[in-house]
Amino acid sequence: MRQRSLIAITAALAAGALTLTACGSRDENGGSDSGGGGTTVVIGVDAPLTGDLSALGLGIKNSADLATKQANKEKVVDGVTFKIESLDDQAQPSSGQQNATKLVADKDVLGAIGPLNSSVAESMQKVFDDAKLVQVSPANTGPTLTQGPDWQTGKKVRPYKSYFRTSTTDAVQGPYAAQYVFNEAKKKNVFVIDDKKTYGAGLAGTFTDEFKKLGGKIAGTEHIDPETKDFSAVATKVKNSGADVVYYGGEYPQAGPLSKQIKAAGAKIPLVGGDGIYSAEFIKLAGASSTGDLATSVGAPVEELPSAKEFVANYKAAGYKEAYEAYGGYSYDATWAVIQAVKKVVEDNNGELPDDARAKVTEAMQNVSFDGVTGKVSFDEFGDATNKQLTVYSVEGADWSPVKSGTYEG
C-alpha cells in the first residue's frame, strides 16, 4: 500500500540556532552568477564526475551549482559571491584525498560538498579537519564517519568536528530495509551479497543483523569483485540456496548486471539494495527482468515534497543536461547549509569575513537549521542529519516508483 504521508521529524535546536529558509524565489533563467559584491567564496564539490558512478556525481555537482546561483541571485550574503569548484574523484579514495588537499590549498574555499562514497570520505576527513575546513556530504551513509568505529557497541565518538552530512546513515537504512522485506514483502529467506567496500559491506551488515533479529533466515552470503561484471557463479549459488530474496550492499554498476544474471540463472526473486542502486542507470543495466526489484533511499521522494517544488522547477530551468538523481536535493541542502554558515559568520563580524573564516564557518555549521529541499535540515551532536526519513522504491517498467516512506523503528 502506497504511503504518501511523511513522518514529522522534530529536533530541539541549540540556543542561538540559525533558522533560515533554503527555497528562494523561482529563477526562470536558471540562476545568475552575479552576486552582492567584492568577496568571492568558493565551495568545493568532490564527486565521481566520470566513470560508472558519474550519473550520481553529476547530479550532486549540478545541484550544488544551482544553490550558489540561487544564493547569488537573492544576495543571501551581502557583499559575497559564491561559486563552486568541482573536482572528480572517480569514486577512488586516493583521488578524493588529493582533491581535499587541493581545496584546502585554495584560501577562497570555505566549505566542501561531497563526496558520494563513504570510502572516499574516509580519505578526506582528516585533511579537511586539520585545515578546519567544513565538509558536508549529501550522500555518505557509513555510520563510522560520524560515530566512530565502535558505534555498534554503543560507544559513539565523533572523529571529526568538521564533517557533517544531510543524508541519514546505514545504521537506519539497513534495518529499515530489513523490516520492510520481512514484515511487508513477506520474504523470510535472504541471500546477502556485498562488494567488500565501506558502504556496501556496512549496509549489508546492518541489514543482516536486523533481518536475523526479526526471525529471518540467511540462506547464504557472498562477496563480489566490483571490478567485474560476470556474476554467473554467485547467481548459481543464489538459485541453489532456495532464497526468496537477495539483498545487495553496493552500487548500481554491479547491482544491475547482478540482478539480470540472477534472474537468468533461474532465480526469479527480487534484488533489494540501498541508495547506491537507486538510479535510472540500475534499471538500464538490469533490464526488463528487474521489475519488482527494490531499493531504499534517503528521504522522501523529492517530487512529492512541497518544499522541493522550487528546486525541481529551478533545476529544470537551469538547463542541466544530467538528472539531479538520488542526492540532488541533499546536495542543494548541503551547499545551502554552507552558505548559511558563511552568512552567520559575516553577520557576526560586522559584514566581513574574519581572518579565521574557515574555523568560524565550521563552528557555525553545528547550529545551522533551515527548511530545505529535503525537509528540515539540522545536525545532531555527531554532525548527522536529524532527518531520518527513508523511502522504499520498486522498479515498475522503466522507472522507480515509491512504495513506502517512513523511518526505522528500533
Automatic annotation (TrEMBL):
Keywords: Signal. InterPro entries: Leu-bd (IPR028081), Peripla_BP_I (IPR028082). It holds the Pfam family Peripla_BP_6. Residues 1-22 form the signal peptide. The keyword Oxidoreductase does not apply. Gene3D superfamilies: 3.40.50.2300. CDD domains: PBP1_ABC_LIVBP-like (cd06342). Residues 40-396 form the Leucine-binding protein domain. The keyword Signal applies. Belongs to the leucine-binding protein family. This is Branched-chain amino acid ABC transporter substrate-binding protein.
